[in-house]
Amino acid sequence: MATFHYRAYTSQGVITAGTIVAEGNDEAIDTLYGSGLTPFETYAVPDEQPHRPELSRRISRQSDASIWKREIFESNRFSLKELTAFTVELATLTTSGLALDAAFRIIAGPGAAPKIGRLANDLLKDVLAGAQLSEAMARRPKIFPPDYRAILSAGEAGGVTGHVLKQIADLLAQRLELRAKITSALVYPIILVLMSLVSVAVIVFFLIPSISPIFIDAGLPLPGILSTFAAIQDNWLSVVLALSIAAVASALVCRKARQNEDVMLAVDRLTSSVPVIGKLIRAKEAGGFARALGTLLGARVPLMSALQTARALVINRHLNALYQHAIGRVPEGTPLHRAFEGTGLLPASSLRLIAVGEESGQLGTMLIQVATIIETDLQRHIERMVGLLTPVLTLAVGGSIGGLIMHVMSAVLSINNLAFQ
User: Fold this and answer.
1) pLDDT on residue 213
2) Sheet harboring 15-22: ordered strands across?
3) Do both 111 and 35 map to the same domain?
4) pLDDT score, position 69
5) Cα 246 from chain centroid?
6) Which of 103, 19, 104 is nearest to 59 (CA)?
7) Which of 36, 149, 195, 301 can bridge 296 by disulfide, Cβ–Cβ 3.0-4.6 Å?
8) Does 145 reside within a domain?
């Protein structure tokens, strides 16, 4: 048996400290959880107690070392996969009837990843201090996106937190699945592009230096594009410097443009008007708007407040202005499906479903269904585009490398002509 010093949160969110006797660190943590405490620091106390000042210095060094280790080696950034796993676990526990504080204690319990444990303990501290879950998450905007927090806030207002968390978990799982499909589909094109770059590097740095002296001795330039590659090789430092300056200048211009609302509005208008990309952007914004609005209405939020909250989640500035204009017609007595008719913001089939929802009094449920249809169609379009990317890149890269090889072969064959001159 060993003695362990601990610091933990009580059920009221108060920090307490003390010692506990257990066979190991894991058993000490389990015992603390069993007594209603949420430990966030436990370490063994040496059998031979040194003088008090030396003990204080040792504890201080241990704390400093743990903080240094956490800052250097343990990132607090959450990937989509980690956020999805956290949300799925939280939704499962809350829908099973557990209180939030109990759910967080289980999530942060033994076996949890350090990053997940820290997040659960931080959220538990805020919740025990009286904050709503959405408010606690709003203090961590780098982890929880705006649509996540807005939908959760609506669920809390309607008393359906567990149900809304399950919806968010399903939405994040769909996004994770789509990202995985896109990533797996892009593996082959990426390998193809990398191999093409290796081929170009071999031609530029090995093949061209081998044949260029023959043309130089004959007083003739390299044929075709090979002369350009030879010039790049001879002046590679200047080329790298010019590209670096161009990259820095582009980054500064982009940063300046992001601070100008008029410029960004023009950029968003342009991107939303591009034939293929614009359609995907509109579908993405429409799905997010419909899902947020449906969740808000399901939580019995007033229609205009729900519309404004859902509109605030539209990222594209140009589309946001169009949504604002359409929403402005609702206070005049225009039904929701009429307000969006002819705007191109929502598909015509979706407007018919919204009209049915308004007539039957099930607008919130119908909007969730509309969002599911739009997001499923969007996922299918993205998968189709990614599927077409592989053959298109194959043809483009194959044609480029083939053309380059033809130039090289033409230069090699022309050496025979130089031999007879």
Assistant:
1) 76
2) 15-22, 2-9, 38-44
3) no
4) 45
5) 28
6) 19
7) 301
8) yes
Give the residue from 138, 154, 173 where a domain finishes: 173
Tokens of 140: 């961590």
Q: Which domain holds residue 150?
A: 80-173
pLDDT at 240: 87
Phi, psi of 9, rounded to the nearest 5 degrees? -95, 140
Q: What pLDDT shows up at residue 200?
A: 77
| Domain match, 55 and 105 both | no
Instruction: Count CB-CB contacts under 10 A for residue 88.
Output: 17
Same-domain check for residues 114 and 66:
no
Q: What is the mean pLDDT of each run of 10 residues along the chain (421 residues)?
A: 74 70 76 74 62 49 46 61 89 85 84 83 86 89 85 78 83 80 79 83 76 72 72 79 92 87 88 88 89 81 85 88 91 89 88 91 89 87 81 82 77 63 53
Is 41 contained in some domain?
yes
pLDDT score of 48? 44
Kindly list the distances between the CA atom of residue 179 and the CA atoms of 38, 78, 164, 382, 387, in Å, as whole numbers in the listed order.
35, 15, 23, 10, 13
Would you give the DSSP letter of residue 274?
A: S
Is residue 214, in this structure, part of any structural domain at all? no
- Whole-number pLDDT of residue 52: 47
Q: Measured between alpha carbons, how far is 305 from 313 in angstroms, rounded to an integer?
A: 13
Q: Which two tokens stand for residue 97?
A: 């009837």
Q: Which of 110, 138, 173 is where one domain is finished?
A: 173
CATH of the domain at 56: 3.10.20
Query: Do 56 and 102 fall into the same domain?
Result: no
In a domain, 30, yes or no: yes
- Looking at the structure, do residues 28 and 62 belong to the same domain, yes or no? yes
Q: How many domains does the chain have?
A: 2
Do 108 and 117 touch, CB atoms closer than 8 A?
A: yes
The predicted pLDDT at position 73 comes to 44
Cα separation, 108 vs 115, in Å, equals 9
Is 139 strand, coil or helix?
coil
Distance separating alpha carbons of residues 128 and 11, to the nearest angstrom: 7
Q: What's the rounded Cα separation, in Å, for the pair 128 and 123? A: 9
Looking at 46-132, list the stretches that DSSP marks H as alpha helix, in order from N- to C-terminal side.
Answer: 52-73, 80-95, 100-107, 114-128
Can you give the pLDDT at residue 205?
76
Query: Could you tell me the two tokens for 329?
Result: 């017609």
For residue 262, the one-letter residue type is: D
